[in-house]
Write a structure and sequence with these properties.
Structural class: mainly alpha
Distance between the termini: 37 Å
Largest sheet: 3 strands, mixed
Order of helices and strands: HHHHHHHEEHE
Length: 301
Amino acid sequence: MEMRESLAKKVAWISVVSNIILTLGKIIIGWYGHSDAVFADGIHSAADVFASVIVLLVIKIANKPADKEHPYGHGKAEVIVSEIIGFLLLLVAIYVAYEGISGFFHEVESPSLLAMWIALFSFVTKIILYRSSLRVAKENQSKAIEAIAYDHKADIVASIAAAAGVLLSILGVRFDIDFLLYGDKAASVFVAYLIFKIAKEMLTEAFDILLERNINTETLQEYIAVVTEFDEVKRIDRIRAREHGHYVLVDLRISIDHFKTIKQGHDLAKSIKRKLMDQNDNVREVLIHLNPFFPDDTDKS
């Protein structure tokens, strides 16, 4: 748990430092270089800085063990962070779209070539950050780090789109092609769409977890396969599982022969729980209810 928290903090700090550098570069160069797309990408990076700081503040809470007031642990703190970041990105998308669309109704200036180079630098940097962050997130089942990774993912395409928009505008001036002058404005609107798409994905996933939606069918089938390996299990009456941030809670109802003793039922439940947790690192708790099974039993309570 300490290693998981340390990795999460490391990823968040790397994200904070890199995004501060990129934010300052893109906003300053985007503003003075007359590039709405690069400036908008800089605003997005500023939102990333805020998101990373929030993650740093909540990581320790999310990794705290269960206690009397929070018997299921504190994992959903990460989900709440993911939701906050999603809302933040949604607001950024609206702002960027508004600025980009309004630019079509004003006289445009050709952006500087430096604006394109800062966008390309951001593109390369974000690819490296996205891949490393996503790897750490999957290895540690961390929704908070995953949220940071998705932020980087949004920046990857946003940066290359901004660079393309700047290049089109420059070519429009050089070859006197009027409609290419608006390439930078079009790119900023496209950046807004990409940010909106990422925000929507994050908000949808966060709401599903907070509303305790059942986990995906494939994973549930894997749990069922483990349970049915035990011959004493005559029937699986119900199986449910829900994400609780970076870990999963499983609720299971099974039927065993009615003549089994309480101790036999207890030992069986303990063995099932241990095997489910051993084969699935992210399963934190397994609650098992035992029902009596009769040969002609049709009750699946």
